Amino acid sequence: MDIRRSPLAARLVAEGHKLLSLRESEVNLETAFLELTKGKFGKE
Which terminus of the chain has a smaller tally of CB atoms within 10 A, N or C? Predict the structure, then answer.
């Protein structure tokens, strides 16, 4: 992804962060929910 096309990448670099890569990936809703809640509800 070209840094000129990515406002997020441009902002991170402007703030002094060094990026090795930045890419999009598709995640289905179920996978996103499981990743987001991992470890929060499994231990009682």
Answer: C
Q: Which of 44, 3, 43, 37 is nearest to 23 (CA)?
A: 3
How far apart CA 43 and CA 26 sit, in angstroms, is: 28
How far is 31 from 35, CA to CA, in rounded Å? 6
19 in Cβ contact with 6 (< 8 Å) = no
Q: Tokens standing for 8? A: 């997020």
- Dump pLDDT digits (tens) for 3-31: 567 888 889 999 999 988 888 878 889 88
**H helices of 1-44, where?**
7-14, 29-37
> Structure pTM?
0.46
